[in-house]
C-alpha cells in the first residue's frame, strides 16, 4: 500500500511539475463565471438525491500556456430534497495543471492532450443531520486532459470554438466507512482504510466544457457550457454530483 501511494503521488505531482516547464511562455488568462443547476447525492449523509430548488455558482480562473493550462476554481451549490424540507450545501475548491504532450495542428483545428494533476478540497453540509451533518471531500488525482479548438471568421471577426475534456484516471481520496463518525476517526484514532485508491472504475467521472471565443467592444469574451459528472464509490458509500452551467467570461 505504501508503494502504491508513492507511485500515485509521483504521477500526480509529476503532472503539476511538467505543467510548469514552460512558465516563460506568454499566457492567456481568463475569468469564467457559471450559473446553473446541481444534483448531489452522498449516502454518508442521506440515501436520496438533492436536486430541487437547486442552484450552482462556478468561478473559474484559467491560465492557458502553449503546452498546457493551469486552472483554479470554486463552486457553491444549494439543493433541497424531494420533500423540500431539508437543504444541503456543496462547496469545493480545486487546482489543476495540465501538460499537453500531444499537440496537433491541422489548419483551423488544433488538438492538445496530456496528463493533468488535479487537487480537490471540499465538503457537503446537511442542515437536518444532527450526529454527522457534514462530509469532507479530499482527493489528489492524475487525469487525462484534452483541448480541441477550431478557428473561424465571421463578419470579418476572428472567432474560436473550444472543447475541453478531463477524465480522472488514478489517485488517492479520503472517505469514511459507512456508519463511521468523524469522532471515531479523529478523536479515537479509529483508522479504517480512509485513504482510498481511486481509479476510473470506482471514480467514473468527467468534466467537459464548450466555449465560444469572440471579440466585442475591444475585448475577448467567452460564452458556453460547463458540465461536471463526478461519481465515486468508496468504502460502501456512493456519491455523485451532476451539474450543468451557463458560462460567461472575459480575457484578463
Notes on the protein architecture:
With about 250 residues, the protein is mainly β. The chain has one domain (about 1-20, about 30-250): Lipocalin (Beta Barrel). Helix content is about 10%, strand content about 65%. It contains 2 helices and 12 strands. It has helices at about 1-20, 180-185, and strands spanning about 30-40, 50-65, 70-80, 85-100, 100-105, 110-125, 135-155, 155-175, 195-200, 205-215, 220-235, 235-250. Strands 1-2-3-4-6-7-8-10-11-12 form a 10-stranded antiparallel barrel. The mean pLDDT is about 85.
Descriptive tags:
252 residues; mainly beta; Lipocalin; ten-stranded antiparallel barrel; 2 helices
Number of strands: 12
Spatial order of the strands forming the largest sheet: 1-2-3-4-6-7-8-10-11-12
**Proper CATH architecture:** Beta Barrel
- State the domain count: 1
The helix tally amounts to 2
| CATH fold title | Lipocalin
CATH class: Mainly Beta
Overall geometry comes to globular
The string of secondary-structure elements, in order, is: HEEEEEEEEHEEEE
Low-confidence stretches: none
Biggest β-sheet description = 10 strands, antiparallel, barrel
Mean pLDDT: 87
Radius of gyration: 20 Å
How much helical structure, as a percent, in the residues?
under 10%
Q: Which structural class do the helices and strands define?
A: mainly beta
Amino acid at each position: 500500500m505504501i508503494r502504491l501511494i508513492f507511485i500515485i503521488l509521483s504521477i500526480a505531482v509529476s503532472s503539476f511539475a511538467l505543467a510548469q516547464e514552460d512558465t516563460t511562455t506568454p499566457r492567456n488568462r481568463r475569468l469564467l463565471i457559471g450559473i446553473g443547476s446541481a444534483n448531489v447525492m452522498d449516502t454518508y449523509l442521506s440515501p436520496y438525491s438533492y436536486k430541487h430548488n437547486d442552484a450552482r455558482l462556478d468561478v473559474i480562473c484559467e491560465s492557458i500556456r502553449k503546452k498546457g493550462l493551469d486552472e483554479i476554481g470554486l463552486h457553491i451549490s444549494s439543493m433541497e430534497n424531494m420533500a423540500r424540507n431539508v437543504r444541503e450545501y456543496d462547496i469545493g475548491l480545486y487546482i489543476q495543471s495540465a501538460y499537453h504532450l500531444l499537440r496537433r495542428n491541422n489548419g483551423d483545428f488544433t488538438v492538445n492532450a496530456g496528463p493533468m494533476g488535479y487537487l480537490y478540497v471540499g465538503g457537503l453540509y446537511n442542515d437536518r443531520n444532527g450526529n454527522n451533518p457534514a462530509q469532507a471531500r479530499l482527493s489528489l488525482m492524475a487525469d487525462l486532459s484534452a483541448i480541441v479548438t477550431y478557428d473561424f471568421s465571421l463578419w470579418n471577426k476572428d472567432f474560436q470554438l473550444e472543447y475541453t475534456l478531463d477524465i480522472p484516471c488514478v489517485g488517492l481520496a479520503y472517505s469514511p466507512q459507512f456508519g463511521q463518525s468523524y469522532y471515531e476517526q479523529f478523536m479515537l484514532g479509529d483508522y479504517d482504510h480512509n485513504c482510498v485508491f481511486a481509479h476510473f472504475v470506482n471514480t467514473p467521472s468527467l468534466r467537459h466544457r464548450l466555449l465560444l471565443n469572440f471579440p466585442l467592444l475591444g475585448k475577448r469574451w467567452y460564452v458556453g457550457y460547463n458540465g461536471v459528472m463526478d461519481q465515486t464509490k468508496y468504502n460502501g458509500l456512493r456519491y455523485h454530483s451532476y451539474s450543468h452551467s451557463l458560462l460567461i467570461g472575459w480575457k484578463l
